[in-house]
Design brief:
This protein is α/β, with parallel strands linked by helices. It is about 35% helix and about 25% strand. Helix 4 (about 115-125) packs across helix 5 (about 140-155).
């Protein structure tokens, strides 16, 4: 069902500062996520990981610096938000929720053809949710909802996929199944960037890591980045950060 034509979609950060109400949340990030990378973003709570994903998505505009997208339109990026951010009270079936992954290609008001229904069924099968089509999303367990979100991502068929804590509070079996999908996307040369807290998962499944602590502590091969020294430095840096500061000392100089 993969209709992706691999392209050289890359994401660059040029001295990027992102924040809220003009207060920086993550600052001076520079680097490039190469096409086809499989990258983990790690760091303590409040390090700016989700903020960086929101910057890539364009929902948060840079305070200073730039995000440079090569061969990539922001609308083509697929994004899996944290489970807690999804309003599940909306009366939507699993089938209709997953079908939303096709909207960008089909348009809102065009009906689905037989090929589309097949693709939706294949996506549900790929995440192990056959038989759940008519269930309201509000009745799903956390793991079932996460599988539903992955099925929607499958249909989006995006060259860049951003995942915000995709395995939080998800059991081992579901995590393993969803990690298989991530590995599959990587094999298809899609770019996958995931915010993660479980460092074992990062070490086993993500070749590249960005360690954030309001700025970049380290960025490179996971074995070089996820070290006790770097993790301790990240903790110290987040604790020392003044969240009320309008500017950092580097900007003021
Ligand atoms: N909408 C917002 N308005 C104001 N401040 C915000 C907003 N969203 C995040 N922040 C602040 O920005 C900082 C970075 O938050 P962010 O959610 O990016 O961190 P994170 O690394 O993803 O943390 P966690 O691991 O806890 O999810 C935090 O101090 C947070 O309180």
């Amino acid at each position: 069902m993969n209709t992706l034509r691999p392209r050289d979609a890359a994401i660059g950060f040029d001295n990027l500062t992102l924040g809220y109400d003009r207060h920086p949340a993550v600052h001076h990030v520079s680097g490039r996520i190469a096409p086809g990378s499989l990258v983990a973003i790690v760091g303590p709570n409040g390090a700016g990981k989700s903020t960086l994903l929101k910057g890539i998505m364009g929902t948060l505009k840079p305070l200073t610096g730039r995000i440079v997208l090569d061969n990539l339109d922001q609308r083509e990026i697929a994004y899996l938000p944290q489970l807690a951010e999804i309003d599940r009270s909306f009366p939507l079936s699993v089938y209709d929720f997953v079908a939303m992954g096709l909207w960008r290609r089909c348009g809102l008001f065009r009906g689905f053809g037989r090929g589309d229904h097949t693709r939706i069924s294949e996506a549900l099968a790929a995440v192990g949710l056959e038989g759940f089509e008519r269930r309201a999303i509000g009745t799903l367990s956390g793991g079932q909802m996460q599988r539903t979100l992955f099925a929607r991502l499958l249909l989006q068929d995006a060259s860049v996929i951003l995942l915000d804590e995709p395995f939080n509070a998800i059991d081992t079996k579901t995590t393993a199944d969803l990690l298989d999908l991530v590995a599959h996307w990587h094999a298809e040369k899609r770019t996958v960037v995931a915010v993660l807290h479980d460092l074992d998962t990062v070490r086993h499944a993500f070749p590249e890591t960005i360690l954030l602590a309001r700025e970049t502590v380290a960025w490179g091969p996971t074995r070089d980045v996820v070290t006790p020294e770097n993790l301790a430095a990240a903790r110290r840096m987040v604790e020392a950060f003044d969240r009320t500061a309008p500017l950092c000392a580097r900007d003021a100089a």
